[in-house]
Design brief:
By secondary structure, the protein is mostly beta strands. It is globular, with a radius of gyration of 24 Å. The longest helix has 17 residues. The chain has one domain: TonB-dependent receptor, beta-barrel domain (Maltoporin, Chain A), CATH 2.40.170.20. The strands form seven sheets. It has a 22-stranded antiparallel beta barrel. Helix content is 7%, strand content 57%. One of its GO terms (cellular component) is cell outer membrane. This is TonB-dependent receptor.
């Protein structure tokens, strides 16, 4: 029962507060495994040429595996909620469905990558965070703020999230069992095997819950493999994964409380990287998604079935020479859909998992990109300038365009001192409409096949400070958007309900300021310091006044966070091996939503605290944690209340052999 877990965990968490005054500073040096990296020395990917974090002229949040293990989180959506520049709008918790929004954009404008592979779903951005790997098999998560079309291609409109996996260089077995409120259960297994020149990582997980309110139960299972094979002259990286989510979807897409959805994804990629001075890295990848959506659960009369294939080839070449490093690359991507409702009329094709239904709609498009980038370091000055030449068959089909577009950009920084750097960036980006934008036809929503691609130019100026465990940054940006797509009210039904359709808007300008700071006291003070670390981040956004002309008709564009602040604290407790992590988040969302019963309602600001107590003993970790510790009522999306206090407890084993 909920009370049983919640009261127990709440007692344990609040008990830790009372022990702080009696805490001993003595702590075993590897109690939480002090991070094996210094952030300044981490190579991150904001360009075609990887650079050290300390040399970047971009704002990147890097979350390592050890940080992830300390957090009171069981899923990607929970982790991303702790990043101030990310507005993670959840319909279903624990990765059931979360929309990734960066710097006041929309969920379709953020790019999600898995080891550099584009995972965005052309059917709808609601599936972009649907990954075939469990959080506990991840090596790192990078969040890039700002546009990156010249680096990652179309759809990196406002930013990108790159999830990285990596086989270990040792034999290791990992197991995790977790239980919590609402009959929540999670089981995770991971094996790393090393033999000669090969390294293998296999991950599988299963989690389920009866749901925190009516019709919110779910099941999720995944299996994932990442292998690295050293051969003469280079290394092959092979990834393969499958994930299956079956979940109730109360009020996800309308006023039905009996909605249900099942989504399955199959993924594969193969990359080769040579060992030469000139780096050549070709890659092929493929993603297939099956989506079965029901407006009325167990009643097929209003079901939608979709099959989406995304396949591509990517090539990146890095050439070092006396004037820096030059990258030349190309990307070819196919996006196709078969559907019962999205696309143009086609000859019927049987749905693989239900031979009583046929796909009667479909569409496809090809995207071709050429990349050129040059990176140079001249004393204290660094610059990365590049351009993407893009051709898209969908854009070419529009009589007003030949399908070709050019997207340039430049990032520059200057080192004011050994620890302080000023930077500025000017980048362009684009986003193609999804198949839902183009073709959807439902009870209260109608697609628009005449939509044009979104475009934006973003200017940013900021400062970065890095020294001996202290990292901080502040930046201000302005994004000029054109042809921005938003679902707006165009009519009403006979019953008086709104009918929405996506439209292009000529101009929309977003302004923002972001601030990030982290203090690693085990570097600043002592490796055994009682206080491990503090992270603080904040983001403040405002659209130009003319954007308000959309008024309450806007469904997504004006539904952004005016402000968000996050605070994370990790510290030791009074027993050897015992530590706690606290995550505090404050959000204030612009605008409101149309409540099914009350009509127009403004979003209310809210404050949420999550907490976790870890006990490490030899190769085992025992923990208790809770999200929304104070049981706050709040909404990420209108008409979908988020869970109250949700307590969990678990045991992990991490064994080398």
């Amino acid at each position: 029962m909920k009370k049983h877990y919640s009261n127990l965990v709440a007692f344990l968490l609040f008990f830790t507060i009372g022990t702080l005054g009696f805490a001993q500073e003595k702590m075993e040096q590897d109690s939480s495994k002090i991070s094996s990296y210094y952030l300044e020395e981490v190579a991150v990917s904001s360009g075609r040429v990887p650079q050290l974090y300390s040399e970047q002229a971009r704002i990147i949040t890097y979350i390592g595996a050890e940080d992830i293990q300390k957090m009171p989180a069981q899923s990607f959506d929970q982790i991303l909620k702790y990043v101030a520049s990310v507005d993670l709008k959840s319909r279903g918790p624990l990765d059931i469905q979360g929309d990734v929004i960066i710097r006041g954009g929309t969920f379709d404008q953020s790019l999600v990558l898995l080891n550099g592979v584009n995972m965005n779903n052309p059917q709808t951005g609601h599936h972009n965070l649907f990954l075939p790997v469990d959080m506990e098999a991840v090596n790192a998560i990078e969040v890039l703020e700002g546009p990156a079309s010249r680096v990652f291609g179309a759809n990196a409109f406002t930013g990108a999230v790159n999830v990285q996996t990596k086989p270990m260089d040792k034999n290791n077995i990992y197991a995790h069992a977790m239980f919590g409120d609402f009959n929540l259960q999670k089981y995770v297994g991971r094996v790393n095997l090393t033999s000669g020149k090969t390294r293998h990582m296999i991950n599988a997980s299963y989690n389920k819950s009866d749901g925190y309110t009516k019709n919110t139960a779910f099941e999720r299972a995944n299996a994932y493999y990442h292998g690295a094979y050293d051969v003469k002259g280079g290394t092959f990286d092979l990834t393969a994964g499958i994930v299956d989510k079956d979940f109730d979807a109360n009020a996800f897409y309308g006023d039905s409380d009996t909605q249900h959805e099942r989504v399955r994804l199959m993924h594969g990629s193969l990359r080769y990287t040579n060992n030469g001075k000139i780096k050549v890295s070709p890659m092929v990848y493929w993603n297939r998604t099956y989506d079965h959506y029901q407006w009325w659960k167990d009643n097929p009369v209003a079901d939608n079935h979709h099959k989406v294939d995304v396949a591509g080839f990517n090539l990146n070449t890095i050439i070092p020479w006396k004037l820096g490093k030059t990258s030349i690359g190309a990307d070819v991507k196919y996006e196709g859909i078969l559907s019962t409702s999205l696309g143009k009329d086609i000859n019927p094709i049987e749905v693989p998992y239900d031979n009583s239904v046929t796909y009667k709609k479909g569409d496809e498009r090809f995207n071709y990109s050429l990349f050129l980038e040059h990176n140079i370091i001249l004393g204290k000055f660094t610059a990365s300038a590049g351009i993407m030449l893009n051709y898209n068959t969908q854009i070419a089909a529009d009589s007003s365009s030949n399908g070709f577009n050019v997207f340039p950009g430049i990032d520059m920084s200057y080192e004011l001192s050994n620890s302080l750097r000023v930077f500025t960036t000017l980048n362009t980006s684009m986003r193609l409409p999804t198949y839902t934008d183009l073709y959807y036809a439902g009870r209260n929503n109608i697609g628009n096949p005449n939509l044009k691609e979104e475009r934006a130019t973003t200017l940013e100026l900021g400062l970065k400070y890095e020294k001996n465990g202290v990292n901080a940054s502040v930046s201000a940006f302005r994004r000029w958007g054109t042809n921005i797509i938003d679902w707006v009210q165009v009519d009403t039904t006979a019953e008086g309900k709104s009918i929405f359709q996506p439209q292009n808007y000529n101009e929309l300008t977003m302004n923002g300021i972001t601030f990030n700071a982290s203090l690693d006291f085990r570097r600043i003070l002592h490796p055994e310091a009682f206080l491990h670390s503090i992270q603080f981040s904040a983001a403040y956004l405002a659209a130009d006044q003319n954007a308000n002309d959309l008024g309450t008709n806007s469904r997504y564009v004006l539904d952004y966070l005016n402000s968000k602040e996050t605070l994370g604290i990790t510290h030791s407790l009074f027993v050897k091996g015992l530590s706690a992590n606290w995550q505090l988040t404050h959000q204030n969302r612009n605008g409101g939503y149309n409540d099914f019963e009350k009509g127009e309602v403004d979003y209310k600001p809210f404050f949420v605290m999550d907490a976790k107590v870890n006990y490490n003993i030899k190769r085992f970790n025992i923990y208790v944690e809770a999200s929304n510790l104070f049981d706050v009522e709040y909404h990420d999306i209108g008409n979908i209340p988020m869970p109250g206090r949700w307590a969990r407890a678990g045991v992990k084993m991490d064994l080398d052999f």
